[in-house]
Amino acid sequence: MKVYLDNGATTKVDAKVFEAMKPYFTEKYGNASSLHSFGREANEALEKARQVIAAKINAEPGEIIFTSGGTESDNMAIKGVAYASQDKGNHIITSTIEHPAVLNTCKMLEKKGFRITYLKVDREGFIDLEQLKREITDKTILVTIMHANNEIGTIEDIGAIGRICKEKGVLFHSDAVQSFTKVPIDVKKTNVDLLSFSAHKIHGPKGIGAIYIRKGTSLKKMQHGGSQEFNLRAGTENVAAAVGFAKAVQLVKEKEIAQIAKLRDRLIGGLRKIPDTMLNGPAGKKRLCNNVNIVFRFIEGESMLLHLDAKGIAVSTGSACSQRDLKPSQVLTAIGLRPDVAHGSIRFTLSRFSTAKEIDYTIKCVKQVVENLRQISPLRRGYDG
Ligand code: PLP
């Protein structure tokens, strides 16, 4: 049995998405900027796709810019605001659990003279709204806090963050790559000025994403060239991918969120029956519907990943192997896990294609693997003294 539970990393392209994209490679391949019928046809498809993305968050089509994905959208938002607002201030507030696309962009800006505040999070990954209020100064130009965390599924209260930012007159960007279509967002009701999205997390193609930029927000463009995308992102648009992205959005059904959450809780329930386990991140409604992240004490995540892979189950760990150095995930240490405990964490991320049969098979296999690994675990021996 093959079970794909790494949908937080990427998802399979829905067959209907692929079908919708195909004609834009082989028949309707015009450049959306060309004036002839091929170009007009491509441009029409591009604008329709833009409308679909905009409607999903109650934005205007002119507020949606297509990019190459979440990473580019995050870069565009943060650097774009930073360089456009230098005369107002040099202070940016973010959190310690952001995706590297945000954290490393902030670190780069720090080297260029910007001051960055990294808000700490609690055990479940939530920022402290009072601390956010206290950290905003008259030099603060941007707050960038993710909507939902990619590792532990924490859904931050972007409504409350937006209200604070509006009160203080500071722009607010949120990385919504993991939450898009899973947690409703209405930009007319929520005070968020910039949002980042990516298609490949929602059964769309890789290499395309979007950024929402509230009308009137001033942004310095990062890429120079043609006047595509309202003169904010130069380069020939990837029409086929935009069409696929929009189709992926249209295919999301509201009721599937609750179904995925039910399977998530079935998996959490089954895995938590294994002794010495702990759930990372919150339970229930404040957790992404498809995210499960569990610590298995006395086990090394990488061994577990490989053993599960041998049984056909794809999951991920929070650790990043860099040469021989096994660094624990920054997110897991930020929520207070000791490095050795963080190393025993596994992330399982579901999709609408996940089934109860797959979940039950996974629970059964994880139990076996944990038992086997614990029998030979030096960590366990150390613990037992
Ligand atoms: N932000 C978050 C929260 C993510 O999970 C990811 C991808 O894992 C990204 C940004 C980067 O998106 P992309 O792969 O489209 O560049």
Tell me what the structure shows:
Helix content is 41%, strand content 16%. The two termini are 39 Å apart. The model has no long low-confidence stretch (mean pLDDT 95). It is globular and about 65 Å long. It has 15 helices and 15 strands. The chain is of the alpha/beta class. It has two domains: 3-10 and 253-376, Aspartate Aminotransferase, domain 1 (Alpha-Beta Complex); 15-251, Type I PLP-dependent aspartate aminotransferase-like (Major domain) (Aspartate Aminotransferase, domain 2, 3-Layer(aba) Sandwich). Bound molecules: pyridoxal-5'-phosphate.
Describe the structure using short key phrases:
385 residues; alpha/beta; Aspartate Aminotransferase, domain 2; binds pyridoxal-5'-phosphate
So, the CATH homologous superfamily of the largest domain? Type I PLP-dependent aspartate aminotransferase-like (Major domain)
Give, in spatial order, the strands making up the sheet with the most strands.
Answer: 2-8-7-6-5-3-4
How many helices? The count is 15
Could you list the spans in which at least 5 consecutive residues all have pLDDT below 50?
none
First-residue to last-residue Cα separation: 39 Å
